[in-house]
Amino acid sequence: xxxxxxxxxxxxxxxxxxxxxxxxxxxxxxxxxxxxxxxxxxxxxxxxxxxxxxxxxxxxxxxxxxxxxxxxxxxxxxxxxxxxxxxxxxxxxxxxxxxxxxxxxxxxxxxxxxxxxxxxxxx
Length: 123
What we know:
The protein is mainly alpha-helical.
């Protein structure tokens, strides 16, 4: 399932021209980070974690609604930004040939063996 999403996200990014010019690994990680920062900004602006709204420019004016009229309206909010984080990760894995599903399964299995609040970090 995850590998199918990785392939689809990467194929879409390629078709939209996001890989026409080579990017460094640092650039790609920065793009992932920027999506997480946009989720944080929505939180700072007082939006609820599950709040979703939709926007579209019509005659130069940005219209906002809480019901998506059709798929051409851009979803916004924390859920959408977190989806963008995952989509960027999927695209990166597609680009670099990373088997994300295996990596997730291995990491989750390892994390299950770790002690409570391992590492002693506060945050």
